[in-house]
Write a structure and sequence with these properties.
The chain has ten helices and eleven strands. By secondary structure, it is α/β, with parallel strands linked by helices. α4 links the parallel β5 and β6. Bound molecules: NADP nicotinamide-adenine-dinucleotide phosphate. NADP nicotinamide-adenine-dinucleotide phosphate (NAP) binds at residues 9-10, 12-16, 35-36, 52-54, 72-75, 83, 102, 138, 140-141, 170.
Length: 283
């Protein structure tokens, strides 16, 4: 039996999982490429195939017969870019036509957010392979503002100053990805910027979280030196500290402040704001 020509990666995670469930609910057949098949979501019309980005041979076999591929960027690691390139080489060798890749807002060779550079290099590799592309350039996830970005004592800490961030809900990225996957030719060789409906300073974000949840959340504008020092209590490689700190310096420098209409254009509905996310009924 032949496998579906639409492949989705990352379905054991948050974003890819939302995409895969949405496609299944719409009756779309898909091939789920996962590292751990036992953790793949059980979905109607989905065939599960084992594959990790860094294993070119397995990826080449898993991608055989795939026409359109949603490639969710891999978890951050020192090896990520190498793994992405291995996977994309396998995609090109397998004859994949169109890659939909979750990139980063303002990805560039010199992005202040250090991981934005890997996304840019991945985009370049897709272009170099001659693959048809759709880049979904995601801003920082809005979902993280009221959760992982709040540290000890209810403080959002980092050297972001009065800079603004047009963070986007993962649900909006997922809905946008589904819109592209339902009609890939209409989105060929196009880059979309995935943002929320507004760009907030972190002080404004703290105020919204306080207003809606009643939680005592504040923003503390660290210096870059303070930011490294406050994160060094977690054991991590240097690239990880750079990524953590540059999240905030990218905000400070205005590199993630652009508000785009692309989520609305793709999904037909306004992207979620921070308030919407905190009060789902409000959305
Ligand atoms: N814009 C932002 O603010 C932001 C923040 C964090 C992350 N991201 C990026 O966005 C991606 C999706 O976000 P998410 O919240 O859905 O992340 P997530 O819940 O951690 O899911 C990541 C998915 O990618 C899979 N994966 C990771 N590395 C892989 C590899 N080397 N080969 C094959 N599959 C791999 C994971 O598989 P397993 O289940 O096997 O691990 C998982 O299914 C992340 O992976 C990261 O690149 C963006």
């Amino acid at each position: 039996m032949s496998l579906p020509p639409l492949a989705v990666t990352g379905s054991t995670g948050a974003l890819g999982g939302m995409v895969a469930r949405d496609l299944a609910e719409r009756g779309v057949a898909q091939r789920l490429l996962v590292r751990s098949p036992d953790r793949a979501p059980a979905l109607d019309g989905a065939a599960v195939v084992a594959c990790s980005y860094g294993d070119g041979r397995a990826a080449r076999a898993a991608l055989d017969g795939v026409e359109t591929l949603l490639m969710v960027s891999a978890s951050e690691s020192a090896e990520r870019l190498r793994e992405h390139r291995t996977f994309l080489d396998a995609a090109a060798a397998a004859g994949v036509r169109h890659v939909v890749y979750t990139s980063f807002a303002g990805a560039a060779a010199d992005s202040t957010f250090t991981l934005g550079r890997d996304h840019w290099a991945t985009e370049q590799h897709i272009l170099d392979q001659g693959l048809t592309h759709t880049f979904l350039r995601d801003n920082f996830y809005l979902d993280f503002l009221p959760t992982v970005m709040i540290g000890e004592g209810g403080v959002i800490r980092g050297p972001a100053g009065d800079g603004r961030v047009a963070a986007v809900a993962r649900a909006d990225v997922a809905r946008s990805a589904v819109a592209v996957l339902l009609d890939p030719p209409s989105h060929a060789d196009t880059t979309y910027t995935m943002t929320g409906p507004e760009a907030l300073t972190l002080a404004e974000a703290a105020t919204v979280i306080r207003d809606v949840t009643g939680r005592d959340v504040t923003f503390h504008d660290e210096t870059v030196e303070e930011a490294y020092a406050s994160r060094r209590r977690w054991e991590a490689p240097d690239w990880q500290y750079d990524a953590w700190v540059s999240t905030y310096t990218a905000i400070k420098l205005g590199e993630v402040a652009e508000v785009s209409d692309d989520v609305r254009r793709l999904t037909g509905r306004a992207p979620l704001s921070l308030r919407d996310l905190l009060v789902p009924d409000h959305a």
